[in-house]
Write a structure and sequence with these properties.
With about 110 residues, the protein is mostly helical. About 70% of the residues lie in helices and about 0% in strands. The relative contact order is 0.18. The mean pLDDT is about 95.
């Protein structure tokens, strides 16, 4: 799906799914999102504020590898950072609850 000027998260979601068609790319996202969330919780609990930027590296590192190496596309984070972050969590939640499989036929 070609990137366009997207004006809402509802419009963004199908674009985001289209950029994550390969299961191996999605796996990289799940690992990064889960690891960054766990690290964030740990850093807040231990009040290690200096290490907070590491959360971004742990989260986006695997996701960007998935895009550049596996999916061979440009991460949506570069154009839509907030919606991309929201969609990462939505995709992870839907995958964990078995809802993501039902989402694909709606758009593709």
């Amino acid at each position: 799906m070609a990137e366009k000027n997207i004006k809402s998260f509802k419009e963004f979601w199908p674009f985001y799914l289209g950029e994550h068609r390969l299961p191996s790319n999605r796996l990289f996202h799940y690992v990064g999102t889960t690891a960054s969330l766990l690290l964030l919780i740990f850093l807040i609990a231990t009040q290690q504020w200096l290490w907070l930027p590491l959360v971004l590296i742990v989260g986006y590192g695997p996701a960007w590898i998935g895009h550049f190496v596996i999916e061979r596309n440009r991460p949506a984070t570069f154009t839509y950072p907030l919606w991309s972050l929201m969609a990462d969590y939505k995709m992870l939640f839907m995958a964990m609850t078995g809802q993501l499989k039902k989402e694909w036929p709606k758009y593709f």
